[in-house]
TrEMBL record:
Residues 1-27 form the signal peptide. It comes from uncultured Thiotrichaceae bacterium. InterPro entries: DUF11_rpt, OmcB-like_DUF11. This is DUF11 domain-containing protein. Residues 198-250 form the DUF11 domain. Keywords: Signal. NCBIfam families: B_ant_repeat. It comes from the Bacteria.
């Protein structure tokens, strides 16, 4: 893959940044102010059966500063009275934030003498020698992990006696936590009148890459005593990672002398002599240094100078190299020395060498091989549409220091379907990847050199997409130390597999081809025949033909193309679990979705179709399309079923009537004939039969629907009637002149008809016969009061009729008003007394306004009360009507 591993030493502008990260790597705790973020996640399956992730809010913790330090080292030296003795020290900020440290040196009590004076000097070049004569009392501002080198100069008093020892307490104290954090060293000087050798160590370079070199190490010695020192032994055991360059030794006393590395007893030099033996198998039997971790003196450099007169000085130098494949670190080296036959070596100052950070990264698909390109592309062969695809990307730290790698996704050039969402997760595949270093990009977190971290990329595929052309997305891992160091890895999905679902009727996994094929069928798969108002129940099987768990939404339509929820008025569809019988003969809980169905699994459910009570039974097939649909992958199937309403002809006549008639007179009764069935009727006629001899009746069609017999009305013969329709009839009753007062006749009216057989000949009545009847009860009396009720529309409820009063049927919108008029007429030949009209508000209505009573065509004052409304009833006045007179009661009702 594309990469850029720039392994050149950094520019000076980057060295400080490199050092900062190195210090972070070695700090005992996170740097003060570090923001620690954490985000949890949950996994679940949604209503569509799709595995989903939910992530929590991010919680943040800020690391507070902790002050700490380390101070090295305790030292013991010899010195002559009146001389100044130098003690090199190192103070390291082991806290987690920037701090400045106060430095001090004081005489100890209980020792042999007090020093005349103390001075502390900076040693920024770390060679064990004061940089200047300017004394200091505090360190520079030190970052976490940073060290400060300094030298304590202690003047031995002139009068100090030989053999006495003076002690100095050297103290470093945190200024961030001055009352809590301090460290001390004890430096001792024993007064002598003999030789006093002091040795310091330096290196020509303080930092370098791995590998690099050569660097020159110099051991500088001086005799500050009063006598000649003999057998001045210099020992240097180099730290791991630093190697001696053979035959590179040089002695300043004999500058032209080429020192050889072998021969532990061979003196070299013409005047002053030196024994030099360095890292050679022959270098046995020599004094082994305390810093030497080997088994004997063959793993160190040893130089034995025969003598160093008082006041003389010199140097021993040699070359070293830095090994390859070292982690970024600081190599510390302390040389040792002894003289005059001493057997316990004394340490020099500690010299650091920083192995510089060189970042490197490989992003691939292998956890065993860090070679670029291995395991790439990271490939997933197939994935269902609408699913979540995971790719494990291995991020190798190929640098020599702990590094954090910023992870970016190239969504501008990915070839995944539009709508794909990419997210990065930690190696567990569930916890979201976060920004751990505050750089504004999700990252791996710290990775040790030559170690790896798995970053999981999840691709959330959109529903409805499929294909086998291959899909790629590239991620880049970039070093947080050096943004020019990066590597890419590509994730590849070869095929997105379309998932299907099959909706069948009675048998699972056998009928239908799945995914919208049944809708195009020319005839329904299953047809149910039911009576009007009854329920047609279809047993359905939903077969998940994919590999993932899915949940399917249940829908219905009366038409194609499918329009979810479309039905004719009065029809209704609900879906249910089976009630336990396994055949939908009983229904369980109502549902709107199947619930989770495993891959290659199925579920049985029931679809209940409610038909309207007035559904026409004309043999028409009512299509019902059932659909199952998954929002996770857009898989659907539509099945064509149907309902047929059975033919149920029915006729009705109403109401029963009661009235009075004078002997030899007539009375007219109003009735209405209804088609109560679900199919048209024909050949409708009404026959009458009387129970009293001499009584008779004639039946008319109320042509103008005014409730009164007039010249427009015709005799009733052979009528037709559509479903739900009706027509009015008038029955004119005759009483014989000799009818006894008080005699009663009961007339039975029988309506008959037939289901319309579709024959255009109205005389052919072969359809199913229907019948119904009512009775009119008439009493012979000289008093005869009849009452007629008419109605008028008052849609805005303002008390003004719209279109006049009639007995015709009309439609009224909700919240409108209807005005009723009841007219009572004395059709007899004698007066009638205490005439009162009574009525009540129909169901779903309430009285509106007040009722009023008029006395029709009565002339002159007539005693009586006005109409009143109370407790859901209305009453007119109680009055006397002469023959031919009328009383009228008007009131209004309001529909709910």
């Amino acid at each position: 893959m594309k990469k850029n591993n720039n392994n050149k030493p950094f520019l000076s502008a980057l060295l400080m940044l490199s050092m900062f990260f190195s210090m972070m790597a070695y700090a005992a705790s996170p740097v003060a102010g570090t923001l620690i973020q954490n985000q949890a996640s949950a996994t679940y399956k949604d209503a569509g059966g799709v595995s989903q992730f939910a992530t929590s809010n991010i919680v943040e913790t800020v690391i507070q500063q902790v002050g700490a330090l380390d101070l090295i080292q305790n030292q013991e030296k010899q010195g002559a009275a009146g001389n100044t003795i130098y003690f090199p020290h190192v103070l390291t900020n082991t806290g987690n934030g920037e701090d400045t440290y106060t430095l001090s040196a004081i005489n100890q009590t209980g020792d042999g003498y007090d020093f005349s004076s103390f001075q502390i000097y900076a040693d920024k070049n770390r060679d064990g020698v004061a940089d200047s004569t300017t004394s200091i009392t505090e360190t520079d501002l030190l970052s976490a992990g940073e060290a400060f080198y300094f030298v304590v100069a202690a003047e031995v008093p002139v009068g100090a006696g030989v053999g006495t020892t003076g002690d100095i307490e050297v103290k470093g104290k945190s200024q961030f936590l001055p009352d809590e954090e301090e460290k001390t060293n004890i430096d001792k000087v024993t007064v002598t009148d003999q030789a006093v050798i002091d040795v310091t160590k330096s290196i020509s370079g303080s930092e370098g890459a791995s590998p690099s070199g050569t660097y020159k190490v110099t051991l500088s010695y001086v005799n500050n005593g009063a006598q000649t020192a003999t057998n001045v032994t210099l020992i240097d055991a180099l730290p791991a990672g630093m190697t001696y360059a053979g035959n590179s030794g040089e002695w300043s006393v004999e500058s032209a002398l080429a020192l050889t590395d072998a021969g532990p007893s061979d003196s070299q030099g013409s005047g002053d002599t030196i024994i030099f033996c360095a890292y050679d198998a022959s270098c046995t039997g020599l004094l082994k240094g305390a810093e030497n971790t080997g088994s004997d003196s063959t793993t160190q450099l040893t130089a034995i100078i025969a003598s160093v007169p008082a006041g003389d000085s010199g140097t021993l130098s040699f070359d070293v190299n830095i090994k390859s494949d070292l982690k970024a670190q600081i190599l510390y080296n302390t040389a040792e020395y002894t003289y005059d036959g001493g057997s316990t070596p004394l340490p020099t100052n500690k010299v650091p060498f920083e192995v510089l950070e060189v970042p490197g990264v490989v992003a691939n698909g292998s956890i065993t091989d860090a070679t670029d390109g291995v395991g790439e592309s990271v490939t997933v062969a197939t994935a269902p549409q609408g699913s979540i695809v995971s790719f494990n990307n291995i991020i190798w730290n190929k640098g020599n220091t702990v590094d954090t790698f910023e992870m970016t996704i190239d969504t501008a050039n990915d070839t995944f379907p539009t709508g794909t969402v990419f997210q990065l997760f930690k190696s567990d595949g569930f916890t979201p990847l976060l920004d751990t270093n505050g750089e504004g990009t999700k990252d791996t977190g710290p990775i040790e050199p030559n170690a790896y971290y798995t970053v999981v990329l999840k691709a959330f595929l959109p529903a409805g997409e499929e294909g086998s052309t291959g899909y790629d997305v590239t991620k880049t891992a970039t070093s947080s130390i050096d943004s020019s160091v990066f590597n890419t890895v590509t994730d590849h999905l070869q095929t997105i597999v379309a998932e299907t679902v099959d909706l069948t009727n009675d048998v699972a996994n056998t009928l239908g081809a799945g995914n919208d094929t049944v809708q195009s069928a020319s005839s329904p798969v299953t047809t149910k025949t039911v009576a009007p108002g009854e329920q047609a129940v279809f047993l359905l099987n939903v077969n998940n033909e994919g590999t993932e768990v899915r949940n399917y939404i249940l829908e219905y339509s009366k038409e194609k193309p499918f329009v979810a929820g479309s039905l004719d008025s009065g029809w209704n569809v609900t879906f249910h679990r089976d009630g336990g019988s396994g055949d939908c003969s009983t229904l369980g809980a109502e549902i709107t979705a199947t619930g989770n169905i495993a891959g290659a699994g199925n579920k049985q459910l029931c679809a209940a179709v409610d038909t309207p009570v007035d559904a026409s039974g004309n043999g028409v097939v009512h299509p019902i399309y059932f659909r199952v649909f998954s929002s996770a992958n857009n898989a659907e199937d539509i099945k064509f079923d149907a309902v047929v309403i059975s033919v149920q002809p029915s006729v009705g006549i109403e109401p029963d009537q009661v009235g009075n008639i004078e002997p030899g007179g007539t009375v007219v009764y109003n009735h209405r004939i209804f088609n109560n069935g679900n199919t048209p009727l024909e050949c409708l006629d009404v026959a009458s039969s009387n129970t009293t001899t001499g009584w008779s009746s004639v039946i008319y069609l109320d042509v103008n629907n005014d409730g009164a017999l007039d010249s427009d009305d015709t005799l009733l013969t052979n009528q037709t009637l559509a479903v739900g329709a009706s027509f009015p009839i008038l029955v004119k009753m005759f009483a014989p002149a000799n009818a006894a007062l008080g005699s009663i006749d009961t007339t039975t009216l029988t309506v008959t008809g037939n289901q319309d057989d579709g024959d255009s000949n109205p005389a052919t009545c072969t359809g199913t016969a229907v019948t119904d009847n009512v009775t009119d009860i008439t009493t012979a009396s000289t008093a005869d009061v009849n009452i007629v009720k008419t109605q008028a529309l008052d849609s805005d409820c303002n008390g003004v009729d719209e279109g006049g009063y009639s007995s015709s049927t009309f439609s009224v919108p909700a919240q409108s008003c209807v005005m009723y008029r009841l007219t009572a007429t004395n059709a007899g030949s004698t007066p009638v007394n205490n005439v009162r009209i009574n009525d009540a508000a129909p169901v779903f209505t309430s009285f509106f306004g007040t009722a009023s009573t008029t006395h029709g065509n009565i002339t002159g004052g007539v005693a009586g009360d006005d109409g009143s409304i109370a407790a859901g009833s209305v009453s007119g006045a109680s009055i006397t009507l002469q023959s031919g007179q009328q009383m009228v009661l008007d009131f209004s009702i309001r529909l709910e």
